[in-house]
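Aim 2, interim progress: modelling of the S-adenosylmethionine-bound target.
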Amino acid sequence: MSDAWNPDQYNRFAAERERPFWDMVAHLEANGAPTVVDLGCGDGRLTQALGRRLGASSILGVDASASMLERAVHYADATTSFIQGDLATWRDEEGVDIIVANASLQWVDDHPAVLARWMESLRPGGQLAVQVPANGDHPSHLVSGELAAEILGEDDHVAVNVLAPEDYAEILAALGTSVDVTLRVYLHELASSEELVEWMKGTALTRFRERLSAEDYDALLAEYRARLLERVGRRSPYLFTFKRILMYARLKPDARGAHG
Ligand SMILES: C[S@@+](CC[C@H](N)C(=O)[O-])C[C@H]1O[C@@H](n2cnc3c(N)ncnc32)[C@H](O)[C@@H]1O
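Predicted structure of the complex, ligand included:
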């Protein structure tokens, strides 16, 4: 992972992608000046904005992508900082008050183990807010999944890695938290169904860009566009329905993580 991430492509739909971020953090309570970590922080704009909203004493953005972090340095300030790291193995020995992860957990597998590691990095009473896309059954993902199987010999990350909402509720409850898990359908009105390709270029298709030559990637995009438009039709405007899972968990006072 990956300089195939392109902040400009990702931000073409910044407004649509931002709504779930603020929904994800809506339950967070900022007591005192919390220490916060944003895992898979992307270009850092929302990391800095969240730190300000929570009155954080510090907020650390962690991301694997050098190109995203190059952009993120512009949002570094007295309380906001960024490091390169892997959210799959991330842990904090000293403990933090709040962990957030927006649209990033789906890129790694074994969510029960990753969530357990994150909860162990929370101080007593600490809070976790996570948003993952759960749109693996939409044609935009089904087609990228088909092509991933055919060309890369791999499964679609979202389809394979993301669990059912009730599984997340059970996993987080078993980790000693009070939990709120919601499955929400977002409606994104795109100018046309062709725009779906632009949307997916900013996220799920980055894996092809990482692995294919420029020429093969262009051919892949043409094939993706053709197959997708055959499924969804050429429509203008196009209502893109997008399911997302929003999780909020708070360590119960008697729950002891690594820092209890
Ligand atoms: C869809 S973007 C979301 C960015 C940001 N959270 C936001 O809401 O704008 C996903 C981000 O996760 C990062 N990412 C993917 N896998 C990762 C990993 N294993 N470790 C750290 N970051 C990862 C990508 O580099 C990318 O910046």
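Residues 1, 5, 21, 40-42, 46, 63-65, 68, 86-88, 102-104, 107-108, 203 surround S-adenosylmethionine (CB under 6 Å). The longest strand covers residues 177-190.
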